Amino acid sequence: MSKPTKKGKLGYSFDDFLKAEGRYEESTNQAVKRVIAFQLAASMKEQHLTKVAFAKKLQTSRSQLDRLLDPENTNVTLDSLTRAAKAIGRVLQLELR
Questions:
Q1: pTM metric for this prediction
Q2: H or E element: which one contains 78?
Q3: How far apart (Å, rounded) are the C-alpha atoms in residues 50 and 80?
Q4: Among 96, 52, 92, residue whose Cα is nearest residue 76
Q5: Which CATH number characterizes residue 26's domain?
Q6: C-alpha span between 60 and 85 (Å, rounded)
Q7: What distance in Å separates the CA atoms of residue 73 and residue 61, rounded to the nearest whole number?
Q8: What phi-psi label fits residue 11: left (phi over 0), alpha (psi between -120 and 50 degrees) or beta?
Q9: Is residue 30 part of a domain?
Q10: How far is residue 70 from each of residues 38, 42, 66, measured CA to CA in Å?
Q11: What is the pLDDT of residues 29-80, one digit of tens each?
């Protein structure tokens, strides 16, 4: 007869694993940037905005916009993200937990 297993957590969470590997902050930053890039691209699509038109709204170059929309590029300033959000009628919201 086998023992009944307890319901609940088994082992480490993925967050615990990333922390143990020293990659939690890097992974979190990259995940946040991917979400924001995805939301910007989705809003552009909803509003039928081309990259050229969006870059004009931001008063920047298309290559700068490509860096902003690149989900792998985490070297984007808060100012750039705020201006991009405003240009598509959104607000960038950050919080500390």
A1: 0.76
A2: helix 78-87
A3: 18
A4: 92
A5: 1.10.260
A6: 14
A7: 16
A8: left
A9: yes
A10: 9, 13, 6
A11: 888 899 999 999 999 999 999 999 999 999 999 999 999 999 989 889 999 9
